[in-house]
Amino acid sequence: MIGLEVQSNPAPIWTQTAPAPTFTGTMAFSDEELERYARHILLKEVGGAGQQKLKGAKVLVIGAGGLGAPVLMYLAAAGVGTLGVIDDDAVSLSNLQRQIIHTTSSVGRPKTESAKRTLAEINPHVEVNCYHHRLTARNALALVSAYDIVADGSDNFATRFLVSDACFLARRPLVSAAVGQFDGHLTTFKPYETGEDGNPLPTYRCLHPETPPPGTVPTCEEAGILGALTGIIGSMQAIEVIKELLGIGEGLAGRLVMYDALSASIYETRLSWSPDNPLNGRNPTIHDLSGHDRAA
Asked: For domain 38-211+225-295, which CATH number applies: 3.40.50.720, 3.30.365.10, 2.40.240.10, 3.40.800.20?
């Protein structure tokens, strides 16, 4: 569970906010770490200073499933110092076709526990914080605020809306991805910042104004999914997280990248800010997470 300092007459958790993340200080590397990260350090865009940023960074991953698995594994391998993973599910045999962070011996165990064990084998220098419970309006803002950036690998719209709103209120970048049977897409949301056109950058609510009606979007259990697809999209998600942490390359804020596995094609489109969206539109109506609490 998340540790929170108890105050007299505290404000509801969903109304608390946090300052934007900063990366300061110098972190020393052992000889083993220097060898481990040698191929990163050789890159001029990373170097020793960039690797120190990764070591000092804290990334929260929503879900330890198909997308969360490669995100967690590649961020651990990259040397991100602290990883948080929240998932209330247990490993099932049908997960193993795509959720490569888990093994047959992990079936029946909490996914967070299984993920932490695998990540320790990949990189023992990474601290892994496990949250074996659901993300809710009561805990989302405090949890998101404790990290520098969030990668959302959840598989339902209710959680995606909650994560998006919490990241906006906490002023945390959100790298969001989703997959279908043979396709996937990803983008980065930084709606607390302003784009080149002078308008706010888009939020998840600009991509999906409302939750689709029940039954209109089949689940993975109902429709099936090509297992390796989650590895491709999840790996791209990990790259975008690393780019945001290092401040390199061109980010995906305001851009939506789509991948079609059957045609081996990648498409890109601009994602525009909607002035009517209730989060950062002209007349915002969402100022806290209490609406999610009522909806739950």
From this structure: 3.40.50.720
Model pTM score: 0.89
Q: What is the pLDDT along the chain (296 residues), one digit of tens a residue?
A: 233 222 233 333 333 444 444 444 467 899 999 999 999 999 999 999 999 999 999 999 999 999 999 999 999 999 999 999 999 999 999 999 999 999 999 999 999 999 999 999 999 999 999 999 999 999 999 999 999 999 999 999 999 999 999 999 999 999 999 999 999 999 999 999 999 999 999 999 999 998 887 777 777 778 899 999 999 999 999 999 999 999 999 999 999 999 999 999 999 999 999 999 999 999 999 999 998 875 43
Contact 175, 160 (CB under 8 A): no
Whole-number Å distance between alpha carbons of 19 and 22:
9
Beta-sheet pairing, 58-62 with 149-152 = parallel
Residue 285: both structure tokens together: 């109506």
- Domain boundaries defined on the chain: 38-211+225-295
